[in-house]
Amino acid sequence: MQTPDTYHVDQRFFGMLGLCRRAGKTVLGTEMICTQMRAKSKPVLVFVSDEASGNTKAKLLHKSAYYGIPCYVIDADGARLAASLGKSGVLAAAAVTDRNFAAALRQACGIPD
């Protein structure tokens, strides 16, 4: 599998991600995201921290490809990702379940549609 590009994120991205969380349109954590991918209402977009382990990245990238869900690696550490979503500790990945939020987040980190 080809190594994915890492996309730069800024304060605007984290602000929008926090807004998405407050709206109840996120799924957090690798296992919860994988479970949601198998469900009827799938995530629209998945973001993985570039500091996540190789196995975590590979798992999410493979599952996302299998289910046809875009998955992007972002240059954010797990602690910053968790803090922007109102969680403590470290978070390897977050998924978005709303198409409009997904489009805004894609635009915020320069991912082409």
Characteristics of this structure?
single chain, 113 residues, alpha/beta, 5 helices, 5 strands, 46% helix, 16% strand, globular
Report on the architecture of this protein.
A 5-stranded mixed β-sheet has the order 1-4-3-5-2, sandwiched between helices. The protein is globular and about 30 Å long. The chain is built from 5 helices and 5 strands. It is α/β, with parallel strands linked by helices. The longest helix is centred in the middle third of the chain and has 14 residues, at 54-67.
Summed up, what is this model?
With 113 residues, this protein is α/β, with parallel strands linked by helices. It has helices at residues 11-22, 30-38, 54-67, 78-84, 99-108, and strands at 6-7, 26-28, 45-49, 71-74, 93-96. The longest helix has 14 residues, at 54-67.
Biggest sheet statistics: 5 strands, mixed
Helix content: 40-55%
- Which stretches of 5+ consecutive residues score pLDDT under 50? none
Q: Residue-averaged pLDDT, rounded?
A: 91
Annotate the secondary structure layout:
Elements: E1 6-7, H1 11-22, E2 26-28, H2 30-38, E3 45-49, H3 54-67, E4 71-74, H4 78-84, E5 93-96, H5 99-108
Parallel strand pairs: 1-4, 3-4
Antiparallel strand pairs: 2-5, 3-5
Helix pairs in contact: 1-5, 2-3
